[in-house]
Amino acid sequence: MKVLCLGAAGKISRESVYDLVEFSDFQTITIADCNEQAGHEVVQWLNDPRVDFKKIDVSDKDKTVKLMRNYEIVMDGTTISLNDRSTACIAAAGVHGINLNGCGAEWEFDSQFSDNGKVCIPGMGMTPGITNLMTKHAADQLETVDTIRISHGAFRPVAFSPAIAETTRVEYDPDLPSRVVYENGKFIQVPPFARPREIELPPPFGTHTQYIIPHAETMTLPKSLADKQIQLIEVRGTWPPKNMVLIRTLYDWGFMRNDKIEVDGTHVGILDTIASYLLQSKEGQTTDLYGYALHVEVTGSREGKKYRHILTHTHPASDGSVKGWEKLRAYTRCVGIPMSIGAQMIARGQVQGSGVIAPELAFEPSAVFTELAERGIIIHKKIEDTADYGV
């Protein structure tokens, strides 16, 4: 089979392709990006005869669709702002699709994928993605679910790439309608920095105050686990402490609105200007600790008893002791690997059905956890009888 890897010149999606090179049996692996120089650099870095490069611009739908029809699967690593266009192209091409973000317009193309007998799986990164599967794994062991609290710590520079700078801005947009919690059968919009909660992440990351963020899990899990009578779903996240101080300051002072200001006769968005600075500065490109940490807590009942399931994950250290996981790669590999695993499972026929399918319904959690373990990413599980704690 052949796979087209959109946006794979980027720092995260190239790790998805690196994993394909290491673990898959795809015959052709094509880097498809608008940045020709970076794309060829990735081809040279991977140094595998199966890997080639095609220049692509998803805004040119006809040309993009024509190219996609030469492949069985499109692994889409483009930014959130491009996912509506990229998914439209994948659907029109009549091929399978999978992406990292899951926060775009993918669901609008459900009937088109279904009519073509193909699947599109949005949001198969660490979170959303692995967190969906961790939640599903816990919920499958309960008859009813009371609360789902998903948390993550993304320990990476605030703006190591344009896509990451965009994600940072989107998550703390003051007017973002998709920043919601699911409570008592309703979606409730909340502002930035809502519902602070102390979350203990696995070592070496420690305990951090986390706030509600806009994420796909909140939207898909009520449907995927509709039979579990869920009362509450909250998704939180944090970045390194310095990043959080910066974002809080930008929010408190109104910078997150991106108001237009005049500088020497030129009108610019104030947040656009700050983002450009961060993308070009040492402060925006480095951090003290690198990596990713997940924490999922699911409470519910089975056979009349109350339980709390806590799932976390760990990965090889970023301190240089494990080759290939140094510094930023400890973060980017964590995010990129799940999409590669998903693409390989689609290719092996391990996804049933057609249409746009959430990760928790597309994949068997234990099968994905086994794949992750082969890469040194370990899912840890703990079950508590909450009666023992007076809960």
Brief rundown of the structure:
The chain contains 14 helices and 18 strands.
Can you describe what's shown?
- Helices cover 35% and strands 27% of the residues.
- It is an alpha/beta fold.
- Strands 7, 8, 9, 10, 11, 12, 15, 16 and 18 form a 9-stranded mixed beta sheet that branches. Strands 3-2-1-4-5-6-17 form a 7-stranded parallel beta sheet, sandwiched between helices.
- The protein is globular and about 60 Å long.
- The protein has 2 domains: 121 residues, Rossmann fold (3-Layer(aba) Sandwich), CATH 3.40.50.720; 223 residues, Dihydrodipicolinate Reductase, domain 2, CATH 3.30.360.10.
- It is built from 14 helices and 18 strands.
- Helix 5 links the parallel strand 5 and strand 6.
- Helix 1 crosses helix 12 and helix 3 crosses helix 4.
The largest sheet is: 9 strands, mixed
Please report the first level of CATH classification, the CATH class of the largest domain: Alpha Beta
CATH H-level superfamily title of the largest domain: Dihydrodipicolinate Reductase, domain 2
Net shape: globular
The CATH topology of the largest domain corresponds to Dihydrodipicolinate Reductase, domain 2
Unreliable stretches: none
Structural class: alpha/beta
Mean pLDDT: 95
Gap between N and C termini: 51 Å
Number of domains: 2
Number of helices: 14
